[in-house]
Write a structure and sequence with these properties.
Blueprint (H helix, E strand, L loop, with lengths): L9 H24 L5 H8 L3 H7 L3 H21 L10 H16 L4 H9 L5 H27 L9 H19 L7 H17 L3
Helix pairs in contact: 1-2, 1-4, 1-6, 4-5, 4-7, 5-9, 6-8, 7-8, 8-9
Length: 206
């Protein structure tokens, strides 16, 4: 039976160390930069040993992969979480609300778009593959919303795949631009621009 220390089970201590490492990495990668960040500095910030680090992660890249996945998953969780209450909303309100939730989630911490759209770009084949997986997932989500709009007569009945991919790129570009400014651009302006782009792209004639 595993021993507890200070009333804390080993599994909980390990989970807490992992979270401290991820939190410290998000800060370090978006301030010093991923390429310049050192594992020793990361461990110092997290208050753990390098041995503890290698018990959780194979290398620095795996930490970046974990953070990139977590940020995208958080945004998708928040967006899909409001779908039920939008069941009876008109298509324009539905799309606008979903975009507002997405933008507010990703911009709630300026480090998140910095990590996802700057530091995680061009790092490795594994990061590019994971990025592409998320492009595909977000594009599928947008395509489904476009189909929903078409079924309700707000948009034409057509293939929306390329439109959805283009809109993912637009969102990435706007959020990259948002985080590049100090202070960041008004979040409401970013959301409004993305909303206008999406509605225009989805509702344009076939």
């Amino acid at each position: 039976m595993a021993r507890t220390y200070g009333g804390v089970a080993p599994e909980q201590r390990r989970a807490e160390r992992r979270e401290r490492l991820l939190s410290a990495a998000l800060d370090l990668f978006t301030s010093t930069g991923y390429q310049q960040a050192k594992i020793t500095e990361l461990c110092t910030r997290a208050g753990v040993s390098t041995r503890n680090f290698y018990e959780e992660f194979e290398n620095k890249e795996q930490v970046l992969l974990t953070l990139h996945e977590r940020i995208n998953a958080l945004a998708l969780e928040h967006v899909t979480g409001v779908l039920d209450r939008l069941a009876d909303a008109d298509a324009v309100t539905r799309i606008g609300t979903l975009l507002d939730v997405f933008v507010s989630t990703v911009t709630s911490d300026p480090r998140m778009p910095r990590l996802n759209y700057v530091e995680a770009v061009g790092v490795s084949a594994a990061l590019e593959a994971q990025h592409q997986e998320w492009v595909d997932r977000w594009a599928a989500f947008i395509e489904a919303e476009a189909r929903h709009a078409a079924l309700h007569g707000v948009a034409p009945d057509r293939d929306y795949h390329l439109t959805a991919v283009a809109l993912v790129g637009a969102a990435t570009g706007l959020l990259r631009e948002w985080q590049a400014h100090t202070p960041p651009l008004p979040v409401a302006d970013v959301a409004a621009e993305l909303r206008a782009l999406m509605l225009a792209a989805i509702t344009r004639p076939a």
